[in-house]
Design brief:
It is built from 4 helices and 8 strands.
């Protein structure tokens, strides 16, 4: 468990009520990782959502064709997560599987929230998922914006 205040400080959780924050804080723990640690892989069951407090996490898209080119597995850097940002949002979106690789680019400290228990909390707090969904959409729009910038740069003459 962590202090609910630690969550309230961040915009992702800023709209939650004190009761919702308390319930969420009971599912959360602080974890430190050294540089170059893989936090999750593409396709892995998404059971945890992460709030980065210190350091930098990189997100990679993995291209892999197990049928025609099983020997070619490549990773492309597609984004960066900075302190105060949430990642691993697939833990709150069906089918609950991660869509990228996440790895620490520096030593990192993050809050990890048990997403399976969080999803179950919505029985007691029906509005919780609605409030969090708005923040998830916001996070995904930021990812899309960053992807568009990269695509535009790639296509520039
Ligand atoms: C994922 O959750 O599938 C990847 C990481 C993220 O976009 O937050």
């Amino acid at each position: 468990m962590i202090s609910p205040e630690r969550l309230r400080l961040h915009p992702f959780f800023g709209d939650l009520t004190p009761d919702q924050l308390n319930a969420l804080a009971m599912l959360a723990d602080t974890v430190a990782y050294p540089k170059d640690t893989v936090i999750f892989q593409v396709g892995a069951p998404a059971k945890t959502i992460y709030l980065l407090e210190k350091g930098c996490v990189e997100l990679y898209y993995e291209s892999f064709d197990p049928v025609f080119k099983p020997e070619l597995r490549r990773q492309y850097l597609i984004g960066e997560v900075n302190p105060g940002e949430v990642f691993g949002v697939s833990a709150l979106i069906e089918p609950y599987k991660f869509t990228s690789v996440a790895a620490t680019a520096t030593p990192c400290q993050m809050v990890e929230i048990d997403a399976e228990k969080l999803r179950a909390l919505s029985d007691n707090f029906p509005e919780l998922m609605c409030v969090l969904s708005k923040q998830i959409i916001h996070t995904l729009m930021e990812r899309l914006h960053y992807t568009r910038i990269q695509l535009a740069a790639e296509r520039a003459p």
